[in-house]
Amino acid sequence: MSPRVPKKAPRRTAERILEVTLELFNRFGEPNVSTTLISAELNISPGNLYYHYPAKDELINSLFDRYEKALTELLRAADGVRDVEDAWLFFHMLFELIWQYRFLYRDLNDLLSKNRRLETHFQFVLKNKQHAVKAVLDGLSHSQAFGKSGIDPREAEPVATSMVVVLTYWLSYEYVRDPRKALEPESAGAALLRGAQHVLSLLLPYLDPAQREHLLMLAGRYLRD
Question: How many CA atoms lie within 13 A of 8 on its CB side?
Answer without folding.
Answer: 5
